[in-house]
Amino acid sequence: MEYHLKEYFSLVTKPVRYLGRELGSIKKDLSKVRLKFCLAFPDVYEVGMSHLGIQILYHILNKREEISCERVFAPWIDMENLIRRKGIPLSSLESSLPLNQFDIIGFSLQYELCFTNVLNMLSLSHIPLLSKDRDETYPLIIAGGPSTFNPEPISDFFDAIVIGDGEEVVLEICDVILSHKENESSKDDLLNSLAKLEGVYVPAKHIPGEKIKKRLVMDLDHAPFPTFPIVPYMRVVHDRLSIEIARGCKRGCRFCEAGFIHRPYRERSPDLIEEIVSSSLKKTGYEEFSLLSLSAGDYTSIESLLSRLMDQWESKKVAVSLPSLRIENIMGNIADEIKRVRKTGFTLAPEAATERLQRVINKYLDEGILFQGVKDIFSKGWKNIKLYFMIGLPTERDEDLEGIVNLAKKILSLGDKEKIHPNITVSVSTFVPKPHTPFQWASQISLEEMKEKLQFLKSNLNKAHINFKWQDPHMSLLEGIFSLGDRRLSSVLIEAKNLGCRFDGWSDQFKYSLWKEAFERAGIDMNYYTREKRFEDKLPWSFIDTGLTEKYLWKEYENGLNVKKSPSCSGRDCIRCGVCDGENIFIKEGGSLKNEIYIKRKVVQRRNRIKRRIRLKFKKVGEMRFLSHLELAHLFYRASKRADLPLRFSEGFHPMPRIIFSTALPVGVESLAEFMDIELEGRITPDEVMKRLNQTLPIGIEIIEAREIPTFFNLLPPERTSYWIPLDNLFSKDEAENKIKEALKRDSLPIAQKRKEEKRIIDVKPFIEAIELKEDSSQWGIELTIRNIEGKTVKASEVLQAIIGLEKDSEPVFRIVKLG
């Protein structure tokens, strides 16, 4: 029997993860393309869709007419179990095409603890794990992302691995494959051709000693960037518009892999950033945008850019966030600009709390500037501060741990002096030596040391009433092993996958005991890779050429051990790391837009502050039934912004649009009659509101009626609700009729009801107002009317469970439609 996955969505949590068809997504006719490419992210949807790289590559690939690019994410545990039970291969979001029918599957490797998810996704796709076991009938499996800068632990699984910026090389890879498809070449010939591309490592064809030079996009202004990114229906981890303003970092923190592998530092021009922000916000309806780089405050024109952007978007209640600020950046006008719409939060990452250790890691932070900056933040109304530190850094002493406690206490006391009683969160992770950094030769502290240090911090910070969060030290150990490991680790990954390890970056799924068993089965010592190394030792990743010289990195390592600072990258103080010629040629100067045009726009908006309330009747059918109430509310908010409706907002810390729904529709239930009120400002008719919204809403949600009502009319839940439930595909008519009669004869109809985490037994019979079998020319089923009792109600599915007693596996194929 053939199963269709979407029929079973009601069996899994968050079915919206698997829907596809989001705003901005692209579904091509696969019969009319020459190459089918699937971007695979080895974590759940909400993590993967927060990653900007996926959006960029999706945009680049789909611009080519002959290429179709689709997406797939790691299914959560319940969906994985369903896939295995039903025998359904893992498939793409856009076309539901099984992964084993694509030409290329490209995995984005952002984190070492996702490696087992890669293997699990291949297994779910019925694709052999090892490259050597796959012939021309299988897709080409490639990888990219920061974790590929030491590709050896996963090189047995991939046919080709991209090192560096993927924007240009991805199309070159596609062209090679298209050429070989035309010529019907063997896989061996294809791999030989791919190995000739700069930035592409083909493990099966690599000549020992040959360098693989990373691929580099020098000018970000000429690099493709999406102005119409995919907008998820669900809340994702970074649920906002993301714009990369710079790539690389000037700072040279000795522990930071991203800062070294992404050298040289490059900026996108302010005018282009403004164009991207303006175009993208209008198309997506996002209520927040984020200016991304490894250190956003180092962007040359950050203050003027931020000021001009907020002049344009403040009146639309669009907030801005800069997730990677240093405290010295905040002391200018940046904090004032950020808070113009909403205080989006401050996270500070000192990493080390003492001056000595800060010099070791080359991230020096003047304590006076730190305290002045924090005081300034508190005075501007911020209350929540997050502080990130690392333990186990090279040369760390007991006083460095004590320094974390003392620094957090001082910051807490600064807030108390400002009389705001701040919430201070200290988050700690264990230092992991990373490839291509000065600390790549350093050792990682043992598991026992990690636990001792964390226990010290936990006991002392809890006494100070400071929130303390930490990464599981077992996870840190594994991250260190796979960051520094060689090709022998592929056998460990296979053992771990077979033992059931996946989602190892999730604390509730991580099983260290299984990992220990996997290492034992593979005969590999877990401590071998995290030991201290000498300059003469051959490192597994030494054939990857990032442009950095090993002599430079070793000198920086020695500087760290000798507590010496090194200057940031600039033309004046270049320390010749090897990446560039020392000329600071990648900085983009100022912008040309004037503030006056935004001032005029704001004045016009202030003239029309007529308040009106529009009541909308809409239907929610088809796949949109899988949106939760919160997802639906957010969808309408963003649709209203895309429609450029003059929304009214609440006052206070976090302004929200005044959009109110009558009821919360259960996930999986369709409706022909839902109601919502939307409050607006200005002169706009109900018909215009309905017309504009319907142009921006997805298929399956449609406004069918709009009328203006007095602003003081509240939207109340209905006293009763009717549903239509077709049953002709589940029972005979006589069987259904008998079940209903028998159920209604009983004194009570108890069911186990679950609301959030609470479980209880409830009698649904008092809630049933009417139930009868009905039939038309095409189908027959039940029309059910449920009443509210003292503000409480039950779900139609719960009534059916009590009356008909459907088996759990039958639920997904059975449809509930709310009539009104």
Overall number of strands: 27
- Report on the biggest sheet: 8 strands, mixed
Query: How much is the average pLDDT?
Result: 90
Alpha-beta content class: alpha/beta
Rg value: 29 Å
- Measured as a percent range, the helix fraction is 25-40%
**Cα end-to-end separation:** 36 Å
Assess the beta-strand content as a share of residues: 15-25%
Q: Please mark out the parts with pLDDT under 50 across 5 or more consecutive residues, or reply none.
A: 591-608
Number of helices: 23
Shape: globular
Task: Please give a structural write-up.
The strands form seven sheets. Strands 18, 19, 20, 21, 22, 25, 26 and 27 form an eight-stranded mixed sheet that branches. The chain is globular. The chain is α/β, with parallel strands linked by helices. It is 33% helix and 18% strand. The two termini are 36 Å apart.
Q: What's the helix and strand layout?
A:
Elements: E1 35-41, H1 45-48, H2 52-63, E2 67-73, H3 77-86, E3 104-108, H4 115-124, E4 140-144, E5 160-162, H5 166-183, H6 187-194, E6 200-201, E7 212-213, E8 241-244, E9 246-247, H7 257-261, E10 266-267, H8 270-284, E11 288-292, H9 302-313, E12 319-321, H10 327-338, E13 346-351, H11 355-361, H12 367-379, E14 384-391, H13 398-417, E15 423-430, H14 447-463, E16 467-470, H15 473-484, H16 489-499, H17 512-522, E17 544-545, H18 550-561, H19 596-607, E18 611-620, H20 629-642, E19 659-661, E20 670-681, H21 686-696, E21 701-709, E22 720-726, H22 733-745, E23 750-755, E24 758-763, E25 768-775, E26 780-787, H23 796-804, E27 817-818
Parallel strand pairs: 1-2, 1-3, 3-4, 4-5, 7-17, 8-11, 11-12, 13-14, 14-15, 15-16, 20-27
Antiparallel strand pairs: 5-6, 9-10, 18-20, 18-21, 19-20, 22-26, 22-27, 23-24, 25-26
